[in-house]
TrEMBL record:
This is Enoyl-CoA hydratase-related protein. Belongs to the enoyl-CoA hydratase/isomerase family. It comes from the Bacteria. The keyword Lyase applies. SUPFAM superfamilies: ClpP/crotonase. Keywords: Lyase. Signal peptide: none annotated.
Length: 259
């Protein structure tokens, strides 16, 4: 499919998905969400892709959902069961491979929420995060009130949601909103470096490890531990487990096949 609002590049097992509406600071309209969903489905099903990076490039990640499009929306429009933003976010969050958000400049509102569906966030030192929806008379409806407190704790999340203020990359790092801050001109390189590191691991183990963390967060500890144990046991049926342990004993790097 030809995309108009995103760019998808695949190289050496890493898919880079770049938001591409620079004139409106990559504001996320329905077309972006439809295209993100389509690209995420395709990448999820492509066994040659091991890791996905989502970025807005080196200037801006995304300044939020498209306010021009939202301004005239009715409650019925917003509550549609086929909500394109929820579908796109669900597909990215549940992608059976690691997703890294590489964030430069503004990551606001729906843009910040998009970064939250990634597994890991790397921020450029010029990044600014915020959930300014409250200033528009709404609330962060792209998962911000749910994913942010789970990531950084309810108190800090409420401060960001209630105040609507922006925080810089170093503060985002200190509260655990991002994993790492890098110089802006090294954002793409650093994201690819991390993606390459993940891509070298066994794809089945990665998929199940991600599932254990994501699904475990929805369970109580005992249920989560049981789920983890099932996934752990399952991995002993894979060639990658045999290869990983054999390689260790033979003191050589493992060559995982993803099966
Ligand atoms: N929507 C539409 N257009 C936007 C948006 C946006 N969110 N952000 C910026 N733009 C446009 C501006 O209108 C402007 O267009 P034009 O040149 O035609 O006037 C262009 O981008 C450049 O923006 P500015 O001139 O405003 O640039 P500044 O550098 O002066 O300011 C800011 C940058 C501070 C980022 C400012 O643009 C701003 O405050 N933007 C809005 C931020 C915001 O409120 N975001 C939250 C939106 S609500 C939301 O995301 C709800 C999500 C929940 C549900 C959806 C699921 C994802």
């Amino acid at each position: 499919m030809a995309y108009e609002t995103i760019i998808v590049e695949i190289e050496e097992g890493i898919a880079v998905l770049t938001l591409n509406r620079p004139m409106v600071l990559n504001a996320l309209n329905n077309q972006v969400f439809y295209e993100l969903a389509e690209a995420a489905s395709t990448i999820a099903a492509d066994p040659s892709v091991r890791v996905m990076i989502i970025t807005g490039g080196d200037k801006v990640f995304a300044a939020g959902a498209d306010i021009g499009q939202m301004a005239s929306a009715s409650a019925v429009d917003v509550t549609t069961s086929d909500n394109p933003s929820h579908r796109a976010f669900h597909l990215i969050e549940n992608m059976p491979k690691p997703v890294i958000a590489a964030v430069a400049g503004y990551a606001l509102g729906g843009g910040c929420e998009l970064s939250l569906v990634a597994d890991v966030r790397i921020a450029a030192d010029n990044a600014l995060f915020g959930l300014p929806e409250i200033k528009l008379g709404i609330l962060p409806g792209g998962g911000g009130t749910q994913r942010l407190p789970r990531l950084i704790g309810a108190g800090k999340a409420k401060e960001l949601i209630f105040g609507g203020d922006f925080i810089k990359a170093d503060e985002a790092l200190s509260i655990g909103l991002v994993n790492k801050v890098v110089p802006a001109d090294q954002l793409s390189t650093e994201a690819k470096k991390m993606a390459t590191r993940f891509a070298e691991r066994g794809a089945v183990a990665l998929r199940l490890a991600k599932s254990c963390v994501n699904e475990g967060l929805k369970m109580d500890l005992e249920a989560g531990l049981q789920y983890e144990h099932k996934c752990f046991s399952l991995l002993f049926s894979t060639e990658d487990q045999k290869e990983g342990m054999k390689a260790f004993l033979e003191k050589r790097p493992a060559r995982f096949q993803g099966r």
